[in-house]
Amino acid sequence: MGLTTTKKMFEDAYKGGYAIGAFNVNNMEIIQGIMEAANETNSPVILQVSAGARKYANPIYLKKLVEAAIECNEKAGKDIPVVLHLDHGPDFETCKDCIDSGFTSVMIDGSKYSFEENVELTKRVVDYAHERGVVVEAELGKLAGVEDDVNVKDSDAMFTNPDEAVEFVKRTGCDSLAIAIGTSHGAYKFKGDAKLRFDILEEVGKKLPNFPIVLHGASSVPQEFVKMCNEYGGQIPGAKGVPEEMLKKAATMAVCKINIDSDIRLAMTANIREVFVNEPSVFDPRTYLSKARDAVKNMVKHKIVDVLGSENKA
Predict the structure, then answer these.
(1) Active-site positions?
(2) Whole-number Cα distances in Å, 176 to 2, 73, 149, 258
(3) Collapsing DSSP states into helix, strand and coil, what is residue 132?
(4) Contact criterion met (CB below 8 Å) for 177 and 135
(5) How far, in Å, CA of 300 to CA of 21, rounded?
(6) Do the beta carbons of residue 87 and residue 108 sit within 8 Å?
(7) Predicted structure pTM score
(8) Distance CA 64, CA 83 (A)
(9) What residue spans of 76-113 are helical by DSSP H?
């Protein structure tokens, strides 16, 4: 099947009451782990590249690694829909570069601008992308938290206004919309109990029927990985994510795409730390990266089957 867009993927997810996992990729082992999980569960998948990943690994390397994963699938007789997506594109030029280099989906994040500036920037990206068969995700509202180049203070966070969402989608022509209902970026999402504004999500769904909504900052921060990291020398006390029950509920509503990044980082780091402590003589990267890759695969399989509901939806 090769690379595809999210258009039919989201149509099927909306009708079926499930969501597609959008997993951030930074290197070969992460891509392998995600793709192995998608293959074993027969699930469509979105591989997304952030601005930070582009700086770290070079977008050409990442694009070729994704192409290699698809080629491996084809040789194995697998037919898994895969989307290559730009996460949090900061400007038109970055989105254009990704579109021109073969990405099938891009996100333009104009949430830091005024409503009118966000509309203008998003519309410009949409016009360029649609002429080339690429879909566009936009964002309205501001999520708190820190992740890669995204850094928003709690005091600057802003819930999405449903009426503005309707106007924004109509004026920009974007294909999906990331909204702010209480999720946040990074591993420290909540100081107390987790609270999401499902009332906002419900109202957006009513005002924009059949339109795909996206949840950013939706990692659950599994406590077993936090504990494991800390046991083997890490220092990440108090990390807390979005409860998986809340994500499952969102997936039955208007949410068709759920972003997951911190959980991958924690799974990898916890397992690498364990190898370093328990096997101090190991210096072959293949030893500890193999274990990290398996941890990513198992975590992604769990998300697909038990949280997203996208198993056997390929």
Answers:
(1) 87
(2) 22, 28, 21, 12
(3) coil
(4) no
(5) 9
(6) no
(7) 0.92
(8) 14
(9) 92-100
Q: DSSP characters for 167-216?
A: HHHHHH--SEEEE-SS-EESSB--SSS----HHHHHHHHHHSTT--EEE-
Per-residue confidence at 155, pLDDT binned at 50, 70, 90? very low
DSSP code string of 7-42: HHHHHHHHHHT--EEEEE--SHHHHHHHHHHHHHHT
Residue at token pair 């891009």: 106
287 contact partners, CB below 8 Å, separation of at least 6: 275, 279
| Domains of the chain with bracketed CATH | 7-308 (3.20.20.70)
Q: How far is CA 254 from CA 79, 202, 258, 283, 305, in A?
A: 26, 8, 11, 47, 19
248 has a pLDDT exceeding 60: yes
Q: 46 and 5 in contact (C-beta within 8 Å)?
A: no
- At residue 244 the predicted structure's pLDDT band, cuts being 50, 70 and 90, is very high
